[in-house]
From TrEMBL:
Primary location recorded for the protein, binned into one broad class: cytoplasm
EC numbers: 2.1.1.-
Keywords tagged on the record: Cytoplasm, Methyltransferase, Ribonucleoprotein, Ribosomal protein, S-adenosyl-L-methionine, Transferase
Record keyword Ribonucleoprotein present: yes
Entry superkingdom: Bacteria
Stated role: Methylates ribosomal protein L11.
Reaction equations catalysed: L-lysyl-[protein] + 3 S-adenosyl-L-methionine = N(6),N(6),N(6)-trimethyl-L-lysyl-[protein] + 3 S-adenosyl-L-homocysteine + 3 H(+)
The keyword Zinc-finger belongs to this UniProt entry's keyword annotation: no
HAMAP family from the UniProt entry: Methyltr_PrmA
Organism of origin: Brevundimonas diminuta
UniProt protein name: Ribosomal protein L11 methyltransferase
A GO term, aspect molecular function: protein methyltransferase activity
């Protein structure tokens, strides 16, 4: 970690911003990079990328990609020593996605009745519910629950565990998650206890882990990760699902949808629904 934490900011039109984000995703040296992309000024059509590198090498790699993308203005700013993730998220409003209401401790008094409430605070794991990919997954799941129920649910790359917790809180008797990041699995299990949700999260690499494989085939698989691992894991996700099962895939940009479908459609999946939030996409696929 560098002595002074930095934030890398890029602004420009939508096309170069999305191209730069795709380049970051495609770089194997930046697979753990944390960044966001959103429309900062709708009237002026200005898009913004905010990246929070955790090492000097990561900062240099992100800045190099952004500066090499024509049409982007890039600045690198030093940050004071603080928990910027927790500080920034503490001021965000609750998230409503269908029947789901995701909130933090600072919104304790705003919890409405008659909703499936999920208490997820800012921490070291991804997935507070505010990101467009997580919202898209919850909206797709809410739509499915109007006509279907899911006995066995798997959350691949669980982060905070919000998706598997949502499944457990809506009646799925088996809801498990896996993450290649050990702190994420720990945080997800803590969140399950906080939300009184019967689900288990495991630190594991791949879906062949015995603790994950024992429940296969699953009725529903969430995978809110990045485009590259979504493509890589396509055969494993397909094998983990029962015939007629559903995969909700996200963590990808709209411009990456075709790449994902090229990996999943040949495996017998069909597209049922696509949800967009800003530049992000969530795909609902069903295994024929």
């Amino acid at each position: 970690m560098s002595e002074s934490a930095v934030q890398v900011i890029a602004r420009g039109d939508r096309a170069p911003a999305e191209a730069a984000a795709a380049a970051i995703d495609a770089n194997p040296l930046l697979e753990n990079a944390t960044y966001s992309i959103l429309e900062e000024d709708e009237d002026k059509e200005i898009w913004r990328i905010d990246a929070f590198p955790t090492t000097e090498e990561e900062a240099e790699g992100i800045a190099e990609i952004l500066r090499a993308t024509p049409g982007l203005e890039v600045v690198v700013e030093k940050l004071a020593d603080a928990d910027w993730l927790a500080m920034s998220l503490s001021g965000l409003p609750p998230v409503e996605a269908g029947r789901f209401f995701v909130y933090g401790a600072h919104d304790q008094g705003k919890v409405p009745e008659g909703r499936v409430t999920l208490k997820i605070d800012a921490g070291a794991a991804f997935g507070t519910g505010h990101h467009g990919t997580t919202v898209g997954c919850l909206e797709a799941f809410d739509n499915l629950l109007k006509t279907e129920s899911f006995e066995k649910v798997l959350d691949v790359g669980c982060g905070t565990g919000v998706l598997a917790i949502a499944a457990a809180r809506t009646g799925s008797p088996i809801a498990v998650g896996t993450d290649i990041d050990e702190p994420s699995a720990r945080i997800a299990n803590e969140n399950a206890q906080i939300n009184d949700a019967k689900c288990e999260f495991y630190f594991a690499d791949g879906l062949s882990d015995a603790r994950i494989a024992q429940h296969a085939p699953y009725d529903l698989v969430f995978a809110n990760i990045l485009a590259a691992p979504l493509v890589f894991l396509a055969p494993e996700i397909g094998a983990a699902l029962k015939s007629g099962g559903v995969a909700i895939l996200s963590g990808l940009l709209r411009t990456q949808e075709e790449r994902i479908l090229e990996a999943y459609l040949p495996l017998g999946f069909v597209v049922e629904q696509t949800i967009h939030h800003d530049a992000w996409s969530a795909l609902q696929l069903r295994k024929k």
